[in-house]
Amino acid sequence: MEEVVGKIWDKWLTRQVSTDFPDSQIKLETIQSQLQIFYRSLGGDKTKTFEACEPRHVKIHRSTIQKIAGSHHNFHLSWQNESSVRLPPYIALFPEPSLNEFLYFWLVALTAFMPKMQHWLRDNQQATASILAKYPGLKKQYQQLVNAYLLTRAKPETLALLTQQNEQDIQRALKGEKLISKIAPTSLQPFPIALWLYPAPFENSASPEPCEHNNAKRKATNPNTDIKELKQRKKAQYVDEKKSTDGLLMFQAEALSTWTEQIDLDRSQSDEQEDDVDEIAKDMDIINLSRQRKAGAAGIRFNLDLPAEENDDLCLGDSISLPEWHYKKNQLIANVCNLQTMIADEIKPVELSANQQKLAQEVRQLLSMLALSNRPKKGQLTGSEIDLDAWINHYTQPVKDSNKQNFYLDNQHKYRDVSCLLLADLSLSTECYVNNEQKIIDSIREALIIFSEALHSLADPFAIYGFSSIRSNHVRYHILKNFNMRYDRYVRGRIARIEPGFYTRMGAAIRQSSQILSQQPSKDKILLLLSDGKPNDLDRYEGRYGIEDTRQAILEAKKQGLSPFCVTIDKKGNDYLPYLFGQHGFAIVRDATQLAKVLPKIYANLTLNR
Question: Is the pLDDT of residue 110 over 90?
């Protein structure tokens, strides 16, 4: 009975203090693609991603019933930093869905006009004035938004004197009647302004102390364990668990209950040891990260230790110094990365399995028409057929050049002149499972073998390399097959031996691959990148720095006459790959288990008319 009454009380109290309109709710995920297009059309930074912001604690004036309910502590405040735009996960502020939707677009407009915030009050007001001056068509909608929003705020006369003056100034600033540069200091903060952006929350930039190395063997993630991912990013801080006061408990001994004083009550709650950690994480404002490597069973495991030398691949020569692009300085900084070329020396020859033989045969049949096919060359001076397109184009020109008589198709037998270098991402994330039996790295192994069979049948010169990294001073560049190696069962053995590595410093690997591929005599040179996620590393390479360096490396490859193309299994690849490779420079494979079938087809399409 007590539980039933409690639920009724909680439902009634929540309904009394709630100011949202659930039936008119607009979710960020439903219009995120539209917001990104709108943001970029206003001149916003193309590298920024859109993410849901986390609730932020704000100390405001609360009514008695709000205090009883314990509500109105945390609010979703919009903000941005150098790498992302953070917006509320949903907006249900108004009874009209159109106003809730327009509020999303208004906040995005502010982020485009205010890339950096120096003064919260002045910058928001100036950005608002700039938007309305440049796009006067928004004035009517903005005025409707302000009028509806002011109805949701507290009436100034119901507040204390100083708080009342601050609220009046804020409301006049929203209407555009007054430009305010400061508000009177009070013990309480102003009620959050949903129409404005806020500064980014404080980030603790202090780097953690080195962790104790753990030489235990890496354990595979249980395939039956679902790893849950929060859609909103949390603020984290490192905590030091090695304190001198640890273990000291201050209490009164007589306050401890004895066994006979304990009462066995059925509280109707689960006694399972595994808590719903994703729900707990959603309720936390700051997540503390331990510096210690020891941990119990978890959904995500990291192992940053390098393998023992006797178990590692053979290093070939000294490391290679490579530059890196610093987007803030707009400069290519020399000798930032150390790339170590490696090769597996103790390998066993591997034969194709029955399934691989069948798949390889299907791929060979598909690509056989590419090997020595007749490809008509248009717009030639001589040929066996008339090129109607060229003739019509010439005939429709207002001024005709009688010297140009290239109206023929040349059907001569052409040989392929294509070289390909495939660069495989061997980062730690490839250890994740795609189903109960197969990991991403398993799909990559099979795809590389079938891809090799396909190019070997075409007689196209090709090379295959893999890479991973641990900061800039250790980029591992694995030779699986170079252009001088003959494709055989030993190459298959080298491919079958690859394992997940560490992180994904794409820029250095792309630069080294571009240098190797550019030395090939072929007319067409394809640089094919096989990846499962964004560029990242333990240092500043995470975020925009890594994106910009990778993009610069791709631009350098194009200047060398190469054709970069990315094949990824990252379902969120549309968020960043167009900026890196261009709108037609990538392909997303939704099902990683189909990678072996899809990769040769992609290569065939890339080289069809070459």
Answer: yes
Q: How far apart are CA 51 and CA 28, in angstroms?
A: 8
Which of 385, 410, 435 is a domain's end point?
410
Of 44, 52, 200, which Cα lies nearest the Cα of 117? 200
Dihedral sign for Cα 585, 590, 596, 601, please.
Answer: negative
Closest to 452 (Cα-Cα) out of 488, 479, 415: 488
Which residues have C-beta within 8 Å of that of residue 465, sequence separation ≥ 6?
421, 422, 423, 424, 477, 478, 479, 480, 482, 509, 513, 516
**159 confidence band (pLDDT: 50, 70, 90):** confident
The 3-state secondary structure of 141-196, one letter per residue: HHHHHHHHHHCCCCCHHHCCHHHHHHHHHHHHHHHCCCCCCCCCCCCCCCCCCCCC
> What is the C-alpha separation between 602 and 610, in angstroms, rounded?
14
The answer to whether residues 481 and 387 belong to one domain is no
Are 391 and 537 within one domain? no
Q: Are residues 84 and 167 in the same domain?
A: yes
Determine the pLDDT at residue 501: 93
Domain carrying residue 397: 377-410
Asked if 396 and 369 sit in the same domain, the reply is no
Which is more confidently placed, 201 or 303? 201
Mean pLDDT for 540-560 is 93
pLDDT tens for 375-424 read 566 777 777 788 788 778 777 777 767 666 777 777 665 567 899 999 99
- Asked if 386 and 495 sit in the same domain, the reply is no
Q: How far apart are CA 389 and CA 409, in angstroms?
A: 10
The proportion of the chain whose per-residue pLDDT surpasses 70, expressed as a percent, equals 76
Confidence check: pLDDT of 101 > 70: yes
Domain termination site, one of 410, 432, 457:
410
- Residue 266 pLDDT level (bands cut at 50, 70, 90): very low
Q: Are residues 353 and 391 in the same domain?
A: no
Split into its structural domains, the chain has a count of: 3
Same domain, 115 and 154: yes
CA within 13 Å, CB half, 398: 0
Domain contains 384? yes
Q: Does the reported pTM lie above 0.85?
A: no
Tell me the CATH number at 449: 3.40.50.410
Strand partners, 468: 476
> Going by C-beta distance under 8 Å and a sequence separation of 6 or more, which residues neighbour residue 451?
422, 464, 596, 599, 600, 603
Q: Are residues 478 and 580 in the same domain?
A: yes
Could you give the C-alpha distances from 6 to 11, 196, 283, in angstroms and in order?
9, 38, 21
Report yes or no on 213 lying in a domain.
Answer: no
What pLDDT, on a 0 to 100 scale, did the predictor assign at position 209? 39
